[in-house]
Every structure is written in structure tokens, then in C-alpha cells.
Amino acid sequence: MNVTLLAIAGGIIILGLASYAGYLLLQVKKQKELQLRHQELAIEKRNANIFENVHTLCLAGIQGQCDLSEISIRVYNIMDYVQGEARVDFDATYPATSELYHIVKDMARGEDRQQLAKKECMQQNLARQKAESRLNDAIVEELKQLQQTVKPLNNQINIQMI
After folding, report:
1. d(CA 148, CA 155)
2. Which of 17, 25, 54, 121 has the most crowded CB, counting CB atoms within 10 A?
């Protein structure tokens, strides 16, 4: 009788612990799903912010408010930060903008440009202007295409802690 009673008590304890372990496993699974969803929302919010900036840069490039070489550098570098499914192979999708970027990326800018010799500065200006004039129409079309591509994705997402 004592052995049966101890076996029943042991079975109840084991059943209770197994139930509690199952409950804890479900809680861990829910927490992992919540963390994954939160990460997805954070990526979407970051991408939306990037796309808003790219949209503005495209508009400035289309309207001629900024040099196309500067636009190509900024857009190329910003689009490199896009994450997830919205990531774009920029070299393949926008070849003219990418070509201009690769031409001017190593040229001096800002304070570095002030330090250059006059002859070298003029050579860089000439190379940049030749590339810009040769690729101008294609880059403007690509900027219009990029602007339309990022426009529907430019949705601000409010993330709230749950």
C-alpha cells in the first residue's frame, strides 16, 4: 500500500513537472516569435527611413538640384544599408548610376579636395564632368525608376513595445 501510494504521489509530481516544463517551452516559443516579429518590424522601419531619404535624393537629382556624381555616391551608399527582401543589387539594377559611382568614389571630396594640387583637381573635375555628361540621361531615368520603386515601400511603421 505504501509503495502504491508513493508511486501515485511520484507520478503526480512527475506529471506536474512535465506540465510545467511544457508550459515553459510554449512561453519560450512565443517569446522567440515575438522577438522575430519585433526584429522584422525594426528592419521594415529602418528600410522605410532609408527609402524616404533615397526618395528625397532622387528628387534632388531629377530636378538638378545636386551634382549627379554626389547623388550617385549618396544613393549607392545608402542603398547598401537596406536589409531583408527589399535589398537591391544596385550594380545590376541601376548600371549607369553604379558606373558613375565607381568612377567618382575615389575622387577627393570636401576638405580633401582643398588639399589637392590645382592640376590634379582639374583632372578630377574633367573626368567627373565627362562621366556626368555621358551618363546624365540614363542616370536621371534610373533615378526616376528608383524613386518609383522606393515610393510604395516608403511607409512609416510605428513600433510599440508589447
Report:
1. 13
2. 54
